[in-house]
Design goal:
heterodimer; A: mainly alpha; MetI-like fold; globular; B: mainly alpha; 2 domains; 13 helices
Chain lengths: 320, 273
Amino acid sequence: MTAPPGVSGPTAVAMRKEETPETPRRKRGRSGVGGVKIPFWFVLPAVIGYAAVVLVPNLSGAVLAFTNWDGYTPEIDFVGLANFTRVLSDDNSLRAIGNTFILTIIVSLGQNVLGLLLALGLNTKVKTRMALRLVFFLPVVLTPIVVGYLWKYLLTPEGTLNQVLAAIGLENLQQDWLGNPDIALYSVCASIIWSGAGFSMVIFLAGLQGVPPELLEASAIDGAGPVRSTISIVLPLINGAIVVNLLLSVLGNLKQFDAVFSMTNGGPAGSTETMATIVYKTAFLYLEYPSALAQGVVLMIVVGVIGFIQYRVTQRKALA
Amino acid sequence: MNRYTGRTLAIEIVLIAAGIIFLIPLYVLVSVALKDPEAQAGFLGFTWPLKFDNISTAWVESNMASGLLNSVLITVVSVALIIVFSSLAAYTLTRNTQHWSRGMFYLFLLGFLFPGQLAMLPLYLGFSSIGLVGNPLAVILIAVGGHMPFTIFLYAAFLRDLPRDYEEAAAIDGAKPLRTFLTIVFPLVRPVTGTVGILAALGIWNDFFTPLLYLSGSQSKTAPLAVYSFVGEYSANWPLVFSALITSIIPILVAYFLMQKFIMRGFAAGLKG
């Protein structure tokens, strides 16, 4: 750790102090930091802000999900699991859960495979790598609903994709990409992959910088081709980057709202509805508060369980 | 490995092709927005000369100036509060060894589990009962509280590895804890502050859901919300819609091209932790 400018005084004192027999280091074990007592109020702004907008509303939401609370009737009764049985027997909610899983799997795989390929390509001696990195990462910083509206145009029947297909003689592949309930969800996935691939790429590039070139040279001398050495040497070495990328893309897309809301608003016929969009609609369009809270709890459990499983699997992998 | 071979050239060609495909949506964004309806459309709707009438119409009609101003205000205030609150809290939680500080740290980590949709209703009705709906303060409070788990986690990871000698020396010299924090600790955690600043600023600027709930009918619309309202009104008019989209993302684009290295490093550094 190099001392930044401006702390030269204390640094000098610290060095001198180190020579005396009673260094602060020795005291630390028992009384916390050697002599430094940090007042409790230092954590208060963070705790109050966090409790007010995260902890209390989430916990009260979870409790209220077991009641008939509707926001204005003063009397609140516990109704057990009634809200959950209603939500979990409702076709729209079930469909949204299914869509959310499909979207999460497609986007996470697509974004990370594409991001990995781009990173592997850019981790070579290509001359345009700086400019290309800038291009691939650009969609990451764009506002998601702006990306959503842009792609909505690209995918309209008269939009860019169909124009391009016509120009290269593939008219028979033309589709109403967002209007056809069978493919709308996949079209939404494509736009999310476009905006997320650069993000995965940057994480993978950071991981690839830790791969020693000598290992690759050695494997090349041993006769391993580029594909072979990537699979058996590079991928295990960037395990950390793979784990982080999968965790973030899975957890992020389970809560996907902006892209769906701006491109299809859940349609056509509910074919792109996700858990996040359906909670919003149940609460603010249909004003069915008990159902919305139950759907929120279901979403929390899904995110929590999948996050925990991913965490445990990665812990085990890290040990192996 | 270290030379530019035929294989490198092949990779380069494939990557450049991929880069061009990646840029097509943005090319379309610009060409549709600047289209001259009278002129003959060229490749993917491009016309020459460019027509900027749509941009100025959209700028005025969408009230984007006010949207950008509100976004700047909300982002700057939120990010400043996030940095101050979370660095102070992480410092306290990593330097104290009492039981409550560990417990409190885990309490903050619990926040990673909550998806936000569950808190949405109680929070909305609570804020509405104290008159915060329509007030940018609601969005700021939610951004600040909601960012605490992640940013405290980042600061704490960095502070654990930071030698305590400087702080201890300052304490021995008689500096009060707040002064020690401000003059010694805060400058030392600058790398995390940069990462937190970038990630939080982008997240808050691009956030759509919270402003949608709290600022929809108000005079304090953020840029993404101004886009949303404008699209609702002019949905059939793509050139105008695209012009509004462009005006709303110009600040991000400028920041991106000025600080590209810094931004990408911020993402990579923040997410490894």
